[in-house]
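Each record in this resource describes a single protein on a pair of labelled lines. An example record follows, reproduced without changes.
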Amino acid sequence: MPQDRAQRQAVGNQFSCVSSRRHRIRGNPPPRLLLPAGRRGRPAGWSGLPASRGGAVRRAGAARGRTIELRQKGAGMSAEKGSSVVLALGLCVGLIGGAAILGRSLQEIRKGERYVTVKGVAERDVKADLAVWGLKVRVAGNDLVEAGRSLEATRAKVLQFLSEKGFSAEEVSSQDLKVSDRQANDYGSGNTRDMLRYVVEATVLLRTRNVDLAQRVSRMTDELVRAGVVLSTKDDWQSAGPRFIFTQLNTIKPAMLAEATKSARAAAAQFAADSGSAVGSIRRASQGLFSITNRDQSAPGQGEGGGGSEDESDLNKRVRVVVTVDYVLKG
C-alpha cells in the first residue's frame, strides 16, 4: 500500500509538471489536479478551497480591514470635533466674562468721574502777641564829633522814655548806626554846600510781648517831642509806630483747616442735593495760604488764599485760609 501511494504521487507530480509547461507555453494557467473523492492523499500546495471562494475570503478580509480603519478614522475625527467644540465654548465664555469685567470697570470709572469742586473758607479773629517798634532818631551837623554827641544824647532820651513807661532793658536794644556825608555823595546836587554836611542816624528797637503797653506808649510820642527828640521816618517804608505780629499761627492751623473743610463739604452737599446725588469721599484737596491781616482793614489785592497785608499797625488780626476740595458724587 505505501508503494502504490508513492507511485501515484510520482505520476501526479510528473503529470503536473508536464501540464504546467504546456500551459505556460500557451499562456493559460495550469489545471488543478483533482483526485478522486474519498482518497486521503492531497498533492503539495493544495489549499483545499476553490479559487473563487479564496478570492472572496480575501476580499472580505480586506473590506473588514478598511471598515476597521474607517471606524478608527471616524473616532479620531469625532474626538477632534469634540475638542474644537470645547475650545469654542471656552472662548465664548472668556469673551463674555471679559466684556462683563470691562463694562463694570467702565461703570466704576464713570462713577469716579462724577465729582464736584468746592472751596471752603475759615476765618478767625486773633490778637497779636508780639510788638516790634523801631524808633529812629537823626541828627545833622557840620562837625561829625558834635553830631555824634548830639545823637548819643537823643538816644539816651529815647531809652529813658521807654524805661519810664515800663519796658525792661532786655526788651530794648540799639542798632543801625549810620553816618552819611552829603558832600561826599557823587549824586548830590550843587547846593549841598549850603546844607549841614553830616547826618547821623540810629535806631532804638523795642521788642516786647506786652503788646497792650506798646500800643499805649506809641500814642505818647509827644513827650519825646517836648524833650527835643524828633523821630525820623525818612527813607522808611514802615510807619513810625510799632508793628503788631501774630506768631501763634501753627497752634490754630489744624482747627482752621478742619473748619474750612467742613465749609467745603457743606457747599458740596448743596450741589449734590441739587443734582440728586450724595457726597462721597474726598477725591483731591489743596490748601491755600494763610493770610493775616488787620482786622479792620482789608489787605490790598487780598484774594482767596492770598498773603497778608504789609500794614501791621493794628493790634487785632484776622486769620483766613481757603481750601479747595474735590468730592466724589454717589448715586
